[in-house]
């Protein structure tokens, strides 16, 4: 099982920028905690961060045949990127959207996520702990997907023998 974590613009500045909103934890620290969870649960995990929309779209597309799920914080692109939304819809992989801050308590232009409708879920306002919740959620989603596939295979085998 492999999860790709995609981080959008300015998240490389965590711990430096607007600590009153995003906290003091650096992106590397968040990734280290996610990696520990992944290791404990025998999950392969990969991290990608870009400030460029096209690079994020490319990385999402590269997940086809490589990853089982995506955890994404599109950051400012949450509110503007139809391209990222379309890429997530195209790859048809379980995707969870994460935001450190509660976007609904911020400026009005941040209230609308173009990404959320193509995601399995959205975790907002939980700070860095939101990424842990996303790992737990994605593990559950991928376990359910695996169980459904196994059930379908078993059913197909029974039908083939009949």
Radius of gyration, CA atoms, in whole angstroms: 17 Å
Quaternary organisation: single chain
**Biggest sheet, strands in spatial order?**
2-1-3-4-5
Report the helical percentage: 40-55%
Let me know the average pLDDT: 93
How much strand? 15-25%
Q: Flag low-confidence runs.
A: none
N-to-C terminal Cα separation, in Å? 33 Å
| Largest sheet, strands/sense/barrel | 5 strands, parallel
* Helix vs. strand class: alpha/beta
| Shape descriptor | globular
Number of strands: 5
SS summary, helix count: 5
**Helix/strand order:** EHHEHEHEEH
What does this structure look like?
This protein is of the alpha/beta class. Helices cover 44% and strands 16% of the residues. It contains 5 helices and 5 strands. A 5-stranded parallel beta sheet has the order 2-1-3-4-5, sandwiched between helices. α4 links the parallel β3 and β4. α3 runs parallel beside α4 (82-91). It is globular, with a radius of gyration of 17 Å. It starts with a strand and ends with a helix. The model has no long low-confidence stretch (mean pLDDT 93).
């Amino acid at each position: 099982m492999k999860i790709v974590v995609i981080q959008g613009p300015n998240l490389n500045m965590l711990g430096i920028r607007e600590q009153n909103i995003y906290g003091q934890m650096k992106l590397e620290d968040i990734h280290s905690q996610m990696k520990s969870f992944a290791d404990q649960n025998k999950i392969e995990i990969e991290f990608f961060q870009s400030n460029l929309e096209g690079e994020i779209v490319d990385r999402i597309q590269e997940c086809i045949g490589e990853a089982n799920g995506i955890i994404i914080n599109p950051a400012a692109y949450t509110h503007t990127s139809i391209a990222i939304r379309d890429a997530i819809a195209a790859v048809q992989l379980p995707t969870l959207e994460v935001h450190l801050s509660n976007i609904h308590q911020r400026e009005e232009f941040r209230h609308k996520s173009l990404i959320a409708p193509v995601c399995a879920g959205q975790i907002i306002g939980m700070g860095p702990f939101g990424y842990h919740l996303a790992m737990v959620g994605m593990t559950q989603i991928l376990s359910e997907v695996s169980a459904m596939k196994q059930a379908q295979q078993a059913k197909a085998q029974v039908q083939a023998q009949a």
